[in-house]
Structure formats: structure tokens, C-alpha cells
Design goal:
With 115 residues, the chain is an alpha+beta fold. It has one domain: Nucleoside Triphosphate Pyrophosphohydrolase. It is 17% helix and 34% strand. The chain has two helices and nine strands; from the N terminus they run E-E-E-E-H-E-E-H-E-E-E. It has helices at 52-64, 80-86, and strands at residues 12-18, 29-31, 39-40, 43-45, 67-69, 72-79, 90-96, 99-101, 112-114. Residues 1-5 have low confidence and may be disordered.
């Protein structure tokens, strides 16, 4: 049996995704009630046993009700500024999706106010 340590003494893994339309515009979300109440790309936390790609597909379903096609890892960030300001240390894996199906809509209004 595994014990999950939920304290802040180890970095966590976050996911973010770049979704670009044909005009070169990037989809961003206005966050609400999180450690990053700013405009940011969609994303969330990696769950146990998920690949990065599975995690971002799940997050996009949960947050925007869209199906991501062919997500690819494009960057990894070590978010020390968040750690410095709030004591939360995240390593973030950034992906880009080639395309998606569906029309993005806010599924979690308590976490996101605008897209």
C-alpha cells in the first residue's frame, strides 16, 4: 500500500496546453479562486498513473468540454516564482494540441470566469 504525501514538501506536476487557432490566436482562461488568478492557458494537475497526454485530454474535457487531438509536449517549466510567493512548487509540462473538436465553454465557473 502506498501513502500519498499531500504536504507541500515536494514539487507537484502541473499541466498546461497551448491551443492555437488558424489566426495565430492562443486560447486563454481567466482563472478564479486558484493560486494563479490571472489569464493563463488551460491546464491542471497530473493524476497518478496518467501520461502527460492523457492528463491534458482529461483537463480539457473537464474545463472546456472539448476533445484534444494529438497533444505533444513542447516545454517544461520549474515554477519557482509561485513557490517564492505562495509556497507551492510546481513543475509544469506544457503541451500543444494540433486541433480539437467541440466548442470551448466554461465548465467550472468557480475556477474560470472567461475564455
Amino acid at each position: 500500500m502506498y501513502t500519498i504525501n499531500m504536504s507541500n514538501d515536494k514539487p507537484r506536476v502541473g499541466l498546461g496546453v497551448v491551443i492555437e487557432n488558424g489566426k495565430g490566436q492562443i486560447l486563454v482562461m481567466k482563472r478564479e479562486g486558484s493560486h494563479a488568478p490571472f489569464w493563463s492557458i488551460p491546464g491542471g494537475k497530473l493524476e497518478l498513473g496518467e501520461t502527460f497526454e492523457e492528463g491534458i485530454v482529461r483537463e480539457l474535457r473537464e474545463e472546456l468540454d472539448i476533445e484534444a487531438n494529438d497533444p505533444q509536449v513542447i516545454a517544461i517549466t520549474n515554477n519557482l516564482k509561485t513557490y517564492e510567493l505562495e509556497g507551492l512548487h510546481f513543475i509544469s509540462v506544457i503541451l500543444k494540441v494540433a486541433s480539437f473538436t467541440g466548442e470551448p465553454r466554461i465548465m467550472e465557473p468557480h475556477k474560470c470566469t472567461e475564455i
